[in-house]
Amino acid sequence: MTDLKRTPLYPVYADLPGVRCIDFGGWELPVQFSGIQKEHDAVRQQAGLFDVSHMGEFLISGEHAERFLQRVTTNDVSKLADGQAQYTLMCYPDGGVVDDLLVYRIAADRYMAVVNASNIDKDFEWMRSHLIDDVSLENASDRYALLALQGPRAAEILQAAGASPDVLALSAFHFKKDMPLAGVDALISRTGYTGEDGFEIYVSADRAGDVWQALMSAGEPLGLVPAGLGARDTLRFEARLPLYGQELSDTITPLEAGVGFFVKLDKDDFIGKDALVAQKEAGLPRKLVGIEMIDRGIPRSHYPVFAGDTQIGEVTTGTQSPTLKRSLGLALVDSAHAALGTGLELEIRGKRLKAEVIKTPFYKRLPKE
C-alpha cells in the first residue's frame, strides 16, 4: 500500500515493461521507461510523451484578474492577448522566488496559471492571501491531466492523431482551447521544457488515458516513446531551463538565476519589485553560470565550488550531457568569478577537480530551414 499520489495516467503505464517509478515530491511518477539516454535521444531526434499531470492548474477570474496577476507576477500580463501564454515568476518581498509558472490568458477576465507540483499548496495560499476585490481563485488541479509531447516530430504526430490544423499552426507560447483530440476536448499549447518544439495537452482527468493511447498509436511509427522525469531533467538542463528548488528558490532571485528577461522592472509595482530593483542597481552578488569539467568528474547538485581556498558557490544541476557527451553543470557563484573562461574547482568526493565557466545554453536546436 502506498501513500504516494498517482496521476490519472498511472494505470496506463504502470505495468509497462521497463517502467521505473519513484517518489517525486509525494507523487509516484516514472523516472524512466526504456532508459534515460534512449528517451533523451528520442526527444532530441523524434519525440517523447511525458505524463506531467502532477503539475497544478489554478483558474483566476473576475473583472480585475489582470490587475491581480500584474501584482503577484514579475512578467507583464497586460501584453497577453486571448490565446497567449507567458513564462513568469512569483516573488517574495525580498526578491526570492515563490515559484515559476506559466500564465494563460483565456479571456480578459479569465486566466489559468500552471504551477510546479511540489508548490501547489504553497502557491495557492500565496495567491489567495493577495486576492483583490472581484477576483476568484480556484485550484482545479485534480480536474486536469497534462501530457507533454516534445520533439522535432511533435507536430507531425499530432497531425497523425487527428489534431486540428489550428493546433498545428500554433506559434510558440500560444494555445487553443476546446480542440478535439481522440474524441476529447483539449486545451493545447505550444511552449515546452526540453529545448525542442513541443505541445502541452490539458484534458479532463477521466479521459487522459484515451489521449495517451491515441498519441502513442499515432506516434510510435514516427519514433515516439514514453519518457520519464530523468530525461525531462537532462533535456531542460541542456537547454538551461531552470528547475525550482535548484536554479530557483526562496533564497535565489530571478536576476541571479539569469531569467531577468521575465522580470519587467518598468511595469507598475509588483511583489518583490523594490528588492529586485535594488539588487540590480547595486550589482548582482551571485550569478548562475555554465561550467564544464576539465578534470575527470561529474558535477552534481550542491557540490561546492571554489576559487583558490575560498568557496564561492555551489552546483545547482550537473550531469554527463546525453547529447553532447560532456561533463557539464550549472552553478550559482560569486559574480567576481562568473566571467567566461574563469577557472574554478569543484569538490567531488573530497577531491578538488578543475572546471571552467562556459557559455550557456549548452544545447540550442537549429532553426528549421
Account of the 3D structure:
The strands form four sheets. A six-stranded mixed sheet has the order 10-11-12-9-3-13. A six-stranded antiparallel β-barrel has the order 14-17-16-15-18-19. The chain has a five-stranded antiparallel sheet with strand order 5-6-7-4-8. A hairpin with a 6-residue loop joins strand 16 and strand 17. Among the domains are: 10-54 and 142-238, Gyrase A, domain 2 (2-Layer Sandwich); 285-358, Aminomethyltransferase beta-barrel domains (Elongation Factor Tu (Ef-tu), domain 3, Beta Barrel), CATH 2.40.30. It has helices at residues 10-13, 36-45, 65-72, 120-129, 154-160, 165-168, 208-219, 229-238, 273-282; strands spanning 20-24, 27-32, 47-51, 56-61, 84-91, 97-107, 110-115, 136-139, 144-150, 175-181, 184-189, 198-204, 224-227, 286-293, 304-307, 310-320, 327-334, 343-348, 351-358. Helix content is 20%, strand content 34%. The N and C termini lie far apart (52 Å). The longest helix has 12 residues, at 208-219. With 369 residues, it is of the alpha+beta class. Helix 2 packs across helix 8. The protein contains nine helices and 19 strands.
